């Protein structure tokens, strides 16, 4: 499952961070840390849904649930069959 | 006792000279907001009082007294002088909510230059349009945002200086870049503050309209007179308050009430430079013993969504007064806040163009949940018949919210766009572009926009700007952008697109388009839904009828379709 985390981490770095930014880890706060804002979270959710062919209900795609790669990974695991 | 004491009493014999006298300003004197927000407070003997309590998303803390912000803004002013910045040059602030943003604005104003704050999440295209329009001379930014500036530098020959406030020496500076460190700068005790007058320009805030590019709203130093008194009477800021305005100074609330209002009153304010999280926000209130909290309906609804259990984990008993701005505050949010915090969020209404609160609920006044409240003393507000532009003489009718010009913080023009400015007035009224009704007791009730501009989380997004950017994507032939309802953000952006031959609709393409707009314009402008269509509804002359798409999204009557080309 580290592949899942690595995939999410790579996507966050490529899509939401500017070049030369501080390195991030699986635990880095993404939403509360200001790396991914609540609007951009919609595109991150869409990426996960497309990539893993899942549907994440809006009430489970909260800022808290998306606040780190580890937490996002937990959300995805719940829906991947 | 609240500062306003009695709204009804304040209405009688109101004059803006009340504010002028409290500020010690006499017409004809020099008036510089940078000086009023720092030097004047120190001269009142409050130099050692805390002006700013700042915390980052990682928990790093910084504290600044009024002496500190006075000296630090002097240092920034001197640095700008050294670069050759002159009065009325435009200096852009393009940063996260770090101390340099807040103190930097005072430094810019002290030189007589015009501050141009821009939201740091703007993409390079949004940034370019605004810097190009303002012919900005310098931009103060962080190394993390510098790449966006570098991308557009070749198209901005007038942008002479890119000031990096956190340069660490790890990578070489690029063309036109210069480092500045507030921590390493020598504090300057005396600085010759430029003697701006009441009508000298102070700020340029950009706002979006239905058509055309974003417009630069020009404000002047005299706006202080409105911002000071509304901070006192509406936000009810008091000597011992710890005030938290959650708005980003890239938008007007963050400057009028996140910098100018509290600091002109000598109040201590706290700033959290972090993204939204209910836990983090409640923790911040508890830690800093916040007493006055000025936030936005989107944030309040997000807190509601996070649930009531999380509130119980924190001691929020310090909260004394709550207010909200940006979009209509729904009755449920008012009732919820009263139940959870023991205080109702008071809705306030104003715009980038008005510079300060125009219609509001006031401490001590009866609250009607869902109502905008009543006009601030000294403000003449009404609802106009959209056909005649005359005020309705009966209550309850929905019309255009209009204001009688003349208050101190009214915009003076749109930058390089006098025609658009003049179009904002009819029959001697300033047209806000919003619709409302007034009840028998004089309370205003918001209905919606009178145009196609999208209000998402309190920020205006131009459908034209998004449509134009969409057409730059290689797959898109045509586009139409409207709002769609959203339970948290009130409205979000939705795009309808037709594809060019050779491109097929897919969810991957949808995501690609979303990210394309997010990076080019901003996360706010990113369509949260893209619908592929065979064709867009157009008039016989070829104009896209957004009205029809909007009506479908909102479940409204489509209305007259006789102009449709394929009708």
Q: Tags for this entry?
A:
heterodimer, A: 81 residues, mainly alpha, Non-ribosomal Peptide Synthetase Peptidyl Carrier Protein, Chain A, 3 helices, globular, B: 567 residues, alpha/beta, Rossmann fold, GMP Synthetase, Chain A, domain 3, 9-stranded mixed beta sheet, 5-stranded parallel beta sheet
Beta strands of chain A, count: 0
Distance between the termini of chain B: 63 Å
Q: CATH top level of the largest domain in chain B? A: Alpha Beta
Indicate the percent of residues in helices of chain B.
25-40%
How many helical stretches of chain A?
3
**Radius of gyration of chain B, Cα only, in angstroms?**
23 Å
CATH topology of chain A: Non-ribosomal Peptide Synthetase Peptidyl Carrier Protein, Chain A
Poorly predicted runs of chain B are none
Assign an overall shape of chain B. globular
Please outline what is shown here.
The complex is a heterodimer of chains A (81) and B (567). By secondary structure, chain A is mostly helical.
What do you see in this structure?
The complex is a heterodimer of chains A (81) and B (567). Chain A is globular. With 81 residues, chain A is mainly alpha-helical. Chain A contains 3 helices and no strands. Chain A has one domain (2-16, 25-79): Non-ribosomal Peptide Synthetase Peptidyl Carrier Protein, Chain A. Chain B has 567 residues and is of the alpha/beta class. In chain B, 30% of the residues lie in helices and 23% in strands. Chain B is built from 18 helices and 27 strands. In chain B, the strands form 6 sheets. Chain B has a 9-stranded mixed β-sheet with strand order 2-1-11-10-12-13-14-15-16, sandwiched between helices. In chain B, strand 3, helix 6 and strand 4 form a beta-alpha-beta unit. In chain B, helix 2 (17-23) crosses helix 9, helix 5 (66-83) packs across helix 6 and helix 7 (124-134) packs across helix 8 (146-152). The mean pLDDT of chain B is 95.
């Amino acid at each position: 499952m580290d592949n899942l985390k690595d995939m999410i981490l790579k996507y966050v770095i490529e899509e939401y961070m500017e070049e030369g930014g501080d390195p991030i880890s699986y635990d880095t706060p993404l939403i509360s840390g200001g790396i991914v804002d609540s609007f951009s979270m919609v595109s991150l959710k869409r990426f996960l849904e497309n990539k893993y062919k899942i549907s994440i209900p809006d009430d489970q795609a909260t800022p808290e649930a998306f606040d780190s790669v580890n937490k996002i990974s937990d959300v995805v695991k719940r829906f991947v069959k | 006792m609240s500062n306003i004491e009695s709204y009804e009493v304040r209405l009688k014999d109101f004059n803006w000279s009340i504010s002028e006298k409290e500020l010690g300003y006499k017409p004809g004197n020099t008036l510089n907001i940078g000086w009023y927000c720092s030097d004047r407070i120190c001269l009142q003997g409050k130099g050692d009082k805390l002006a700013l309590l700042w915390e980052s998303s990682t928990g790093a803390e910084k504290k600044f007294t009024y002496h500190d912000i006075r000296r630090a803004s002097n240092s920034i002013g001197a640095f700008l002088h050294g670069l050759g910045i002159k009065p009325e040059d435009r200096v852009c602030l393009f940063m996260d909510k770090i101390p340099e943003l807040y103190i930097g604005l005072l430094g810019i104003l002290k030189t007589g230059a015009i501050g141009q704050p821009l939201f740091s999440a703007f993409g390079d295209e949004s940034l370019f349009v605004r810097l190009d329009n303002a012919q900005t001379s310098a931009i103060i930014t962080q190394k993390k945002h510098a790449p966006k500036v570098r991308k557009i530098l070749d198209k901005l020959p007038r942008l002479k200086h890119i000031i990096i406030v956190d340069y660490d020496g790890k990578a070489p500076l690029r063309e036109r870049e210069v480092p500045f460190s507030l921590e390493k700068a020598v504090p300057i005790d005396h600085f010759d503050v430029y003697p701006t007058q009441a009508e000298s320009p102070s700020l340029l805030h950009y706002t979006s309209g239905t058509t055309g590019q974003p417009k630069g709203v020009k404000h002047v130093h005299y706006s202080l007179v409105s911002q000071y008194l509304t901070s006192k009477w509406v936000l009810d800021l008091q000597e011992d308050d710890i005030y938290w305005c959650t708005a980003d100074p890239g938008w007007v609330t963050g400057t009028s009430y996140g910098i100018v209002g509290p600091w002109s009153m000598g109040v201590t304010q706290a700033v959290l430079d972090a993204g939204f999280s209910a836990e983090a926000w409640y923790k911040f209130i508890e830690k800093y013993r916040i007493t006055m909290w000025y936030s936005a309906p989107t944030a309040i609804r997000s807190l509601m969504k996070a649930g009531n259990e999380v509130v119980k984990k924190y001691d929020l008993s310090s909260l004394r007064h709550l207010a909200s701005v940006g979009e209509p505050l729904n009755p449920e949010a008012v009732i919820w806040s009263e139940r959870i915090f023991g205080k109702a969020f008071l809705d306030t209404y104003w715009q980038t163009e008005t510079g300060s609160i125009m219609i509001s609920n006031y401490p001590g006044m009866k609250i009607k949940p869902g109502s905008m409240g009543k006009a601030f003393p000294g403000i003449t507000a009404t609802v106009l018949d959209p056909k005649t532009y005359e005020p309705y003489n009966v209550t309850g009718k929905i019309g255009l919210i209009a204001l009688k010009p003349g208050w101190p913080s009214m915009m003076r023009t749109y930058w390089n766009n006098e025609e658009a400015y003049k179009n904002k007035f009819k029959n001697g009224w300033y047209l806000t572009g919003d619709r409302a009704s007034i009840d028998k007791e004089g309370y205003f009730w918001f209905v919606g926009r009178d145009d196609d501009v999208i209000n998402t989380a309190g920020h205006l997004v131009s459908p034209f700007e998004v449509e134009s950017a969409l057409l730059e994507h290689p797959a898109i032939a045509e586009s139409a952008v409207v709002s769609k309802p959203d339970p948290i953000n009130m409205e979000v952006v939705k795009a309808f697109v037709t594809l060019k031959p050779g491109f097929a609709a897919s969810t991957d393409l949808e995501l690609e388009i979303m990210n394309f707009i997010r990076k080019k314009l901003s996360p706010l402008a990113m369509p949260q839904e893209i619908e592929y269509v065979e064709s867009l509804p157009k008039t016989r002359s070829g104009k896209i009828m957004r009205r029809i798409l909007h009506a479908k999204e909102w479940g409204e009557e489509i209305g007259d379709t006789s102009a449709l080309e394929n009708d």
